[in-house]
UniProtKB/TrEMBL annotation, chain A:
GO cellular component: plasma membrane
Keywords: Cell inner membrane, Cell membrane, Cytochrome c-type biogenesis, Membrane, Transmembrane, Transmembrane helix, Transport
Record-given protein name: Heme exporter protein B
InterPro entries: Cyt_c_biogenesis_CcmB (IPR003544), Cyt_c_CcmB_bac (IPR026031)
Single Gene Ontology MF annotation: heme transmembrane transporter activity
Transmembrane helix recorded as keyword: yes
Pfam families xref list: CcmB
Gene source species: Mesorhizobium amorphae CCNWGS0123
Principal subcellular localization: membrane
Membrane topology: Multi-pass membrane protein
TrEMBL record, chain B:
Organism encoding this protein: Mesorhizobium amorphae CCNWGS0123
Domain ABC transporter: 3-201
Record flagged with keyword Acetylation: no
GO MF, one example: ATP hydrolysis activity
Matches recorded under InterPro entries: AAA+_ATPase, ABC_transporter-like_ATP-bd, ABC_transptr_haem_export_CcmA, P-loop_NTPase
Protein name: Cytochrome c biogenesis protein CcmA
Superkingdom of this protein's organism: Bacteria
Any coiled-coil regions, as ranges: none
Amino acid sequence: MWSLFLRDIRLSIRAGGGALTGVIFFLAVIATIPFGVGPDLNLLARIGPAILWIAALLGCLLGLDRLFQADREDGSLDLLVLGHDRHMLALTVLVKCLAHWAGSVLPLVIAAPLLGLFMNMAPIGIGATALTLLVGTPAITFIGAAGAAVAVALPRGGLLISVLVLPLTIPVLIFGVSASYGAVADPDPFLQPFLILAALTLFLAVLGPLAAALALRHGTD
Amino acid sequence: MRLIAENLGGERGGEPVFSGIGFALEKGEALVVTGPNGAGKSTLLRVIAGLLPVAGGRVRIEGGGEDFPSIASACHYLGHQNAMKTVLSVAENLRFWRDFAGAGLLSVEEALETVGLGGIGHLPFGYLSTGQRRRISIAKLLVSQRPLWLLDEPTAGLDKASEARFGGVMTDHCRQGGVIIAATHLPLGLDGAKALVMGETV
């Protein structure tokens, strides 16, 4: 399992991997927002956490279509599915999700504090947003894995995955953003939405890979 | 170990491709599946491996013991694709499959020597020619131990010398008590293999 994790990490950082696409997309979105909204620093600071979260959400969805498709095209997916007796397929999917998250989404979380400065956010707000992204983005990957598994056989499944997955990620977005706001706007709580966000991630860490494994087992042709 | 198929049927996209296939293979036996394009050779192999649902009849393994309770756990499936990543080196690819599928008798270097490609382990898989890629996926059969080999056109793209070497590899596997089912258009150099011709009764 560890070797699968290492292989996928290697693939994401070698030529043609998706490690940088998400970050560059994230950077492009955040850098354009101030030009569109205008130089109102208070407004930027107020919408900052929400914009960071939305951009991160879309950045997460960007590379998801390759999660299983790359393995399907070169025949690896058949062997991963056949290895079910040795390594439970849901566990294989979980490891692939974790590798995808560490390879493609973690760079985005690391870039978030820097981009928070672009949005004139307070240091505590930046910290809270980065923390909620760290805890919340794995949930998006886990939901996305189920979408990617359903759309694995479709040649241009990327858009379909986004459409399938986006409604399901809304709770993650809501609690992520409300926890980020809770850290800066005083009467709002931080801990409660943050804990629900953590619970969502743990819950989806089980449900997402199970659903994806089911879809992959019945999707071979 | 015995592999038994009874009245096996397979379909693709709801269309029946073949039906009524039956065979029994004992330890050390090989079955060569031939037939025209579209006769269902690849479908048969995928049905046996469990990658496609069985449309009729059944296929099962007997006496696989604790290590190999099901066909999926007992088989190496070599499909049309090589299941290797082009950006990783040959050795990285093989080492991954060795770790994932369980270590076999041969190390990665020994397996590469066996297919006659020793010393190229450091090259990215994408740099290799078609025939060399095929030989690397044959090396993949050797780095993990599985009694049943399901081979789909294993010699596609191989030159004469590599074909002969692969014939030797398969003969060794059978001699050690393995079972081979190979779908092919080319002679494989397997002595005493059973033959199954598909597409004639349809």
